[in-house]
């Protein structure tokens, strides 16, 4: 589908936004309970969205996640989507982005790929999400004990995984260590340092390889940040 067609498709949803199903607006942060209209998306800034995610993760990690009526959210978002952010995260079964940030249906675009690597298809998805569909924040979210990062540290070669892990090798190379130190997956501290380097490099990769998103960030229309999810504590740390 061409960008213009996509734009038209998005625009078409504007006139049919379910105003009758209006979920109300939280007065403090000006967030709608459901991202059901362009107005909800337009009312908030990238820093406010980061704050919303931080608060959401605090709720999740403390066992006080929001009880959502998903059936109601399905109805409210059926005619269009106006997500706040895109999250590139790992396929790891312990790191589901919406859950750990306590977000609902229609809140975020979610690209999951082993090792939260960036390639042309991910960049294309992010460009659609921000330039066409209006998402204002991009988060590259890694996680602790990542099997893909461990595989890159150990230089695993297997089928199509070889090419994927090659995308993490620049992060492995970027982490210094003392002469003779263990640089394999057995060194947990090293693995977590590579995971962080991988996130930071991929945030920069988005800027370097997508002139569209770089320009949007330079203009202040979007923000691109990194984050790390701890599979043991349930907490997300942010690299802003
Ligand atoms: Zn992983």
List keywords for this structure.
single chain; 240 residues; alpha/beta; Beta-carbonic Anhydrase, Chain A; 5-stranded mixed sheet; 11 helices; 12% strand
What does this structure look like?
With 240 residues, the protein is α/β, with parallel strands linked by helices. The chain has a single domain (3-16, 34-239), classed as Beta-carbonic Anhydrase, Chain A (3-Layer(aba) Sandwich), CATH 3.40.1050.10. 45% of the residues lie in helices and 12% in strands. The protein has eleven helices and five strands. It has helices at residues 3-14, 38-42, 46-61, 70-77, 97-100, 120-132, 147-153, 161-166, 169-174, 188-209, 211-218, and strands spanning 85-89, 108-112, 137-143, 223-229, 236-239. Strands 2-1-3-4-5 form a five-stranded mixed sheet, with helices on both faces. Helix 10 (188-209) packs across helix 11. The longest helix is centred in the C-terminal third of the chain and has 22 residues, at 188-209. Bound molecules: zinc ion. The site of zinc ion has 7 residues, from helix 7.
